[in-house]
Amino acid sequence: MRKVINLVLSTAALMAIANASHIPARGTARKPKANRWSREKAWEWYTTIGPIRGCNYLPRTAVNTTEMWQADTFDPSTIHQEFGWAHDAGFNSVRVFLQHLVWKHDPEGLKKRIDRFLTIADKHGIRTMLIFFCDCSFAGKEPYLGKQDDPVPGVHNSGWTPSPGLKRVTDRSIWPDLEEYVKDIVATFRQDKRVLIWDLYNEPGNSGMGEKSLPLAEAAFSWARQANPSQPLTIGVWADFTSPMSKRIVELSDIISFHAYDDTDGVRSKIKLCQTQGRPLICTEWLRRQVGNTFASILPLFAEYNVGWYNWGLVAGRTQTYMPWGSKKGDPMPKIWQHDIFHPDGRPYDPKEIELIHKFTFGKIEPAATRWSKQKAWDWYRKVSPIRGCNYVPSTAVNMMEWWQAETFDPKTIDRELGWAHDCGYTSVRCNLPYLVWEHDPKGFTSRLDEFLTIADRHEIRVMFCLFDDVNFARENPRLGPQKKPLPGVHNSRWVPSPAAHKVTDRAYWPGLEKYVKHVVGTFRADPRILAWDLYNEPGNGGLGEKSLPLAEAAFRWARQQHPSQPLTVGPWTRFNSKMSRRMLELSDIITFHCYGTASDAKKLIQSFSKYGRPMICTETIRRVPGKDFAAMLPVYARHGVGWYNWGLVAGKQQTYLPWEDKTKSISDHWHWDMLYPDGNPYDAKEIELIRTFQFEKEID
pTM (2 decimals)? Predict the structure, then answer.
């Protein structure tokens, strides 16, 4: 029902909505976010209800929402007739506007009429989305009771009035009344299966209201949540996606809804913007035939992206929404209708559209589009535990570039060293992958990955791959070709990130990063040799901070689209209560983390992360200083059922046996990391015995 504000589709818009879950609090309505549905719950709901094929509905005898719901003009016989047509056309839902003023005048009567409406809809297999507020004001006046003005001939939606009325949106003296309205209706129907969704506010900010409508939108979420509905809450994004209004309503919505009256490219862009939230999508308004926004062009997009939908209009009637926006008094009925599906006698405007509605279904709801359930995560963990692992780079490689390039890939060394790893008692290795090597030679790169996995499997070792990494000890960008020699006495002196820092923040490079993730994960998505996918090692390291968060979120989305059989994770590594860390924990199937602190530090982290109710693995741990070594740390992990990966296997070109801060040149000095000398002899045989005998103290429940 868009009237005046156009959507801005840009890189800035994509960045804004991708970060919508991280907007600073404003106003007094921050509390509802705590009760927002989890993504898991939202997808469970969405997969249960099946594809939504809906329309925005007013009976043809009503010029606006007041005429629809007032006692004198409520028209159940017409509703019954038209819902029969809707059902026969293939619709299974309708989106319906309520009017606050009608409730104010007769609350009990309105609720009875809503109940009757729902009963009629249910008889025809139709579930209802109810809307409380709306800023659209085509009539140019506030809502009023009594007889409504007749439509102006030739004018689109000439009688439409807002709810509760534009003046009431900002007049907080009447908000107690608006609060009672929302709570009364939601509480009455909060467990009613005939109600599918609550759309709290249609196009907030329309009719020149702008950001002034945001406080009421936030309040509506708060009031509705207090009624504890069983149905999801939403407000549709319809205007500038970069505005505080759009970002805030996305942040508060259980499911993401949006309006799309654009051509196919515009609709596709909006879908991709909304997809960044990782929640089900429903387009709650669309259909504008004269610009190519038609059933034939748009339904394939909705099917491709699993988007439920509500076109505007069912039967041509007093709203005259078959006329285009901006039509003038006396304009004739156009040959190409803007909205609506049926003539007043029930004849379809275009029978081919009815066929398309009937045939519409999703290509497939992606089961991997959601985070694993806790039960699935624990079932996986029971099968693979206990994990005794190390972070691995061959001793002949100074960094992951030298490891994975064709000219320096060293399967003989890998085979020898993974044999030693098996003899030490390790069951898994964690390995970093370089995007730049894949970009240069995708086919050769995946071939080398397969060769590595074959070697590891021969030694009964499963692999956790890391796709991105912000760590940059070298303080240089990755480059192909021969790598610089290690600086004598310097810990990990040639380690470079993947990808380079500028590619993390410049979205012009993201299509390539997306192809990389999808290719690698897609190639090995069902490979039992791979234990798990660690999508991003230490995001924010190298001075990037929170700027790495959007890429980390995107990595989850890209990987899930490949339906991997292995769990996905990104481990917090610093500032464990930061926005970045909380977001990673929220998205991960299993909880991973880094801890180079003491046994006491590890225990505190484990206790903190236990609230997520998921398996835990410490993917970087143990440093040979008092309280942080194998003897101190392994008992903590055994007691709490936590898998682990220490850093390093064989002392080599990385020189990670050296401490971070010192510049000692002797390999015989006190080691901080690594387990074996280059000839395979252990640095400390007692540590090897601790690894071999490591078990959880009790079985996993």
Answer: 0.56
